[in-house]
Amino acid sequence: MATPATSSAQREDSDRCAACGGPLIGRYYTLIDRPERYCATCIAMRPRCDSCGAPLGPKHWQLHDGRLQCATCHSMAIYDPKLARQIFQETVAHVINQLGLTLNVGVEFRLVDAPTLEEIRAQGDRHPPEGARRTLGLYQRQGHMRVVYVLYGLPRLIFRTTVAHEYAHAWQGERCPLLNDDDLREGFAEWVAYRHLFWIGASKAAHRMLASTHPYRPALERILDLERQLGVQGIIEYIKRAE
Ligand SMILES: [Zn+2]
Ligand SMILES: [Zn+2]
Ligand SMILES: [Zn+2]
Questions:
Q1: Distance from residue 127's CA to the centre of ligand 2 (Å)
Q2: For residue range 165-208, what is the model confidence (pLDDT) as tens digits?
Q3: Is the Cβ–Cβ distance between 207 and 71 less than 8 Å?
Q4: Which of 185, 189, 167 is nearest to 176 (CA)?
Q5: H or E element in which residue 125 lies
Q6: 230 Cβ contact partners less than 8 Å away, ≥ 6 residues apart
Q7: The 108-112 sheet, strands edge to edge
Q8: CA of 55 to the centre of ligand 1 (A)
Q9: 43, 143, 165, 237: which has the fewest C-beta neighbours closer than 10 Å?
Q10: pLDDT less than 50: residues of the chain
Q11: Distance 33 CA to ligand 1 centre (A)
């Protein structure tokens, strides 16, 4: 995810690597949309934050399931199940207000750790395997149980986008259970998350979704193309009829 900075024009002698604190001489690296700069050694060698991908400095946290978290992500992370449930409900209410994606049956919420989420993912058949990409959340239906699972310790914005994405899958489960086109399913879920970010004023984070190397990005772009032709409500009607 690290990209070399395009210009060294504003570099000052006092610039230091955000991970090791060493002076930045010659080439340095930044992450998309972030002010921190890193030396080549730290970009190549340091372990990365499991939430944002930044090289970890000496001050970082290890969660009980082994995930590593940088100080910035830690300061915005949701560890408390009560708070998580509150933000889950808020996010769902926003998605319903903004896009009208209501459910008849509703959906439960669980805050889980990484091994638990992996176990649940392995049991399910619907969500496609995501290879090297870490799973942050899941929607799963088991008999009468419909549940959105999300990792604990995610920074707020990542938590919200994960909830919006998985809630979209819950909605698809009710409104278009025959939708088998994975690109459309995932692209639509990403689009719901993308729209949610604008709705809460996090337009920078929304734009970041389009600049990322995320495997779902092409699917999101396909839905945004459709949105330009059909409009927001048109997309929702389109998805309901798609297979
Ligand atoms: Zn460094
Ligand atoms: Zn981080
Ligand atoms: Zn998905």
A1: 26
A2: 999 999 999 999 889 899 999 999 999 999 999 999 999 999 98
A3: no
A4: 185
A5: none
A6: 237, 238
A7: 108-112, 145-151, 137-142
A8: 9
A9: 143
A10: 1-9, 13, 132
A11: 19
